[in-house]
Amino acid sequence: MALSIHSIKQTVRRTAHLTAAEARAQKLPALIAALMSRDQDEGVAAFREKRQPRWQGR
Prior knowledge:
There is one protein chain. The chain is an all-alpha fold and 58 residues long. It has one domain (3-48). It has helices at residues 3-15, 20-26, 28-35, 38-48. The protein starts with a helix and ends in a 10-residue tail after the last helix. The relative contact order is 0.18.
């Protein structure tokens, strides 16, 4: 499963019982992890090279 989809599902499960404001505060660690991933680098490279990304879930 793609890293971003896994992260979204995990965040939704973890924050379903929280208010909207509390849930927004909980999403920051997942966002930081996604931005520091190798898949993020691959996404940027694929965009620049005008090709499909090769996601690895890392």
